[in-house]
Every structure is written in C-alpha cells, then in structure tokens.
Amino acid sequence: MALVPLTHMLALLLLPAERFARSPCAAAFPRRALLRCSATEEPAAGALSRAQNLESLLSLAVQTERYEEAARLRDELASLGVDTELAVLQANNQFYRSFSDADLQAMDELWAPEGVVTCTHPGHAPLNGREDIMASWQSILGAGAGISIRATAVQCSVQGSLGFVTCVEQVDPGDGKTSAVNIFAQQPDGSWRMAVHHAGPVLM
CA-CA-CA-CA torsion for 53, 59, 61, 63, nearest 10 degrees? Predict the structure, then answer.
C-alpha cells in the first residue's frame, strides 16, 4: 500500500528539532517513557460511546437472563451499524487502552503486521519498521510511570482504506499537551491496524 500522501501530510506536522529545543514544551516532554495514556479519550462522535454502552447493557441483560431486553438491545445495537468511521474510532480507543494498561501484547496486535509503519514519539526522530517501533513501546510501557494523558478534541475521517484520527493529548497532572495524529490502514480481513502514530508538542 503506497503511503506517499501520508508523507506529504506528516511533513507539515513535524516540528524542526531546533524549534522544539527552544520551546517551553521541551522540558515537559523529555522522554515519552514517562507518559502513560488513560483510556478516557473523547470520541469524535457519540456513536462510539453509544455502541459501547449498548454492548455493556446487552452483556448484563444476557448474564441476568433478561432475554427480551437483550433482544431489544441487540436490535438497537445492530441499527447503529458498524460503519468505517466507528471501526476506526474503536481501533483508536484500543490504542489508548493498550497504552494506559501498559499492555505490550495488545499494542503489538494493534500495529499493522506488514507494510510501511512509522512512529514518532515527542522530541524524537521517526521510527520506521515494526521492529524498532515495538522496541520503543517495550521501553515505554515497561517504565510504568504514573503520569497519564487524556486525549481530547478527537476527530476522525476515513478516505478509502485509510482512517485518520487527530487529537490533543493532555498531560495529567500538569499543563503539558501533545498533538497526535494516528493513521490506521484497513487490513485484508477488514480490521483496522495502526500504520502511523505521530505525537509532538503543542506550542502555545
């Protein structure tokens, strides 16, 4: 899969190292390994949270043998449909959940198994290729620091077999923010896997 358009787009997002070094954000983001994400990011639309709520209610109804209610919830869930945007948002949600839980296996399963993959942690050069990317996540998730990030202002769009998600990551505690771009590629089995993750400082 050719990712030439992504290269052009990311070139606009990459902050020159010298500008980053002079910015107030530099001290706030010395190492990505110090940051962990919470799974409380805000979806771009209510469809994701609505679907997740219905799934929880459906599971509870089945467990308590309230089958008529379960059937109603099942039909309501089906009526929402699992469109491509919702599927991409679910994949994005899984990324932050894996980050928050420091779950390396889940993180590994989320990244595209083949093709061009790129990951840029704040203040660091881009990593290309699965081996280097997963080595970085092993170091980050293994650190287990208590700082969390809450993703806000989540936006999603889908163009063909690529899903684009943008968000602002709020460091908690503190005032630090990072801007993130997550790009997912649809796989032959229909699932969405991460192909690009780029996070950098937000200059105020």
Answer: -150
Domains of the chain: 16-201 (3.10.450.50)
Radius of gyration of the chain (CA): 18
pLDDT of residue 8: 41
Residue-wise DSSP of 128-149: ESHHHHHHHHHHHHHH--SEEE
Q: How confident is the model at residue 47 (pLDDT cuts 50, 70, 90)?
A: low
Taking the chain, what is the end-to-end CA distance rounded to the nearest angstrom? 36
pLDDT tens digits, 53-97: 887 888 888 888 888 888 888 888 776 655 778 888 889 888 888
Q: What is the C-alpha separation between 40 and 96, in angstroms, rounded? A: 8
Burial profile 34-66: b = 16 or more Cβ within 10 angstroms, e = fewer: ebbbbbebebbeebbeebeebeebbeebeeeee
